[in-house]
Structures are given as C-alpha cells and as structure tokens.
C-alpha cells in the first residue's frame, strides 16, 4: 500500500525504525509503509534518507495528508526534555503510524496506541497496553496485563513482566528485568542489567540486583 512515514529523530532509534520498515518490505513483502525521510535538527541526511526538515518544520509537513510520523527521540535519563520536545511538535494522534516487525508476537487482546514501535523478536502479552509512541527494541518482552504510558522505551533484551504499570516517558533499559506487579513512575529508569523488585518512583533511576535508587534524572 506504500503509506509514507517520516521518522522524527536520528540514527539511533530512528535508524532502527527505518531498518524495521525496510526489513518488513524486503524479507516479508509487507509494503504497507515506506520511509519518506527524517525530521532532524542537526543533520541533512540520516542513514541515507533525506532530512525533510527540523522539529520547527513539522507543522508544515503535517499539511501533506500523505505523511504519517514515527517518534524516535528518546534520551535515557533526560526524558523531561524528550517529552517537552514531543509536546512542542504537537502531532495529532491519528497522524502517527504503528510499526511492528514481522517476527514480533503481539497478542490479539493487546492494545498498541498510535506511534508504537515493536522491533524484531519482541513479545507483547495478552491484555497488555503500550501507550502512544512507546518503543520496544529487539528482543524485549512486555508481559500480560501490563500497562505502559506514552513515550516509554524498552531497550534490547529487557523483560517487563505481568501486571506492571509504567507511567510517562520511562525506561526499562538493556537487559533489565522487572518482576510482576511493580509500578514504575513517570520519567523513571530501570538501569541496564537491573532486577527491579520494588516500585520506582517518578524521576528516579534505579540500578543493580535488586535495583536500588541511584540518582534522579536530569531536569534540563
Ligand atoms: C537499541 C537499544 O536498545 S540501545 C540501548 C540503550 N541504552 C541502554 O539501555 C543503556 C541505559 N543506560 C544505563 O542503564 C546507564 O547505566 C544509567 C542511565 C543507569 C546511568 O548512566 P550514567 O548516569 O551515565 O552513569 P555512569 O555511567 O556515569 O555511572 C556512574 C556509576 O554507576 C555505575 N553504573 C552505571 N550504570 C549502572 C548499572 N546499570 N548497574 C550498576 N551500576 C551502574 C557505573 O559503573 C559508575 O560506577 P563508578 O562511579 O563506581 O565508576
């Protein structure tokens, strides 16, 4: 069908989203989405794709009804700024694409809000809900009945168990594991390799096994 998507971000998360779309097209014959280009404030091209403008140009790009968007900006430990940038570009919910790699498993009863990205070999369990523009990187798992707020990020190999609640713009980072029924607040981080057995309050970074308070996220 070839619907056009513009990725907002750089070669980190944005490049992964583009690679996923290309792989779905080339290896799996899924032609629903094609990458039109990137929005980026610093580069003129990203991963070989043209940069169509900066974040100040998004309102102009929205005038073209053919364009949909994916949000790829996510600064671990600095997500107050991520969320502020997201609000600034002000893209209507219905203009986001939802991209799922063909090797991912998403339960029928799971809900993926607009802008969600699910990379290869991910698992999203029954009755799970992923909030708007949340990103699941390769081999990350979100268990059944877990509710994730908008703009969250699951790094490669993270395991988020069942009946967990995660707030706005938070992180479960590389290989971190979160046991069932834990609550992770807004702008919070489960550090790389951590085992989260207790709630993580808003704005806090916890690391280690079991995870303990490390510091607060940056506010700038
Ligand atoms: C496609 C993808 O998914 S890309 C992957 C995305 N990246 C990630 O998921 C990585 C996430 N980052 C982390 O987990 C980071 O370690 C953070 C955010 C928890 C902390 O980062 P920083 O604030 O930069 O901490 P910094 O590197 O300065 O380390 C400070 C101290 O804490 C220790 N430390 C840092 N992270 C951890 C951790 N996860 N577990 C245990 N100790 C840690 C460091 O060893 C260091 O100790 P030292 O002072 O004795 O030398």
From TrEMBL:
SUPFAM superfamilies: Trimeric LpxA-like enzymes. Acetyl-CoA binds at residue 153. InterPro entries: AcTrfase_PglD-like, PglD_N, Trans_hexapeptide_repeat, Trimer_LpxA-like_sf. Substrate binds at residue 77. It comes from the Bacteria. Residues 4-84 form the PglD N-terminal domain. Belongs to the transferase hexapeptide repeat family. This is PglD N-terminal domain-containing protein. The lineage of its organism: Bacteria, Pseudomonadati, Bacteroidota, Bacteroidia, Bacteroidales.
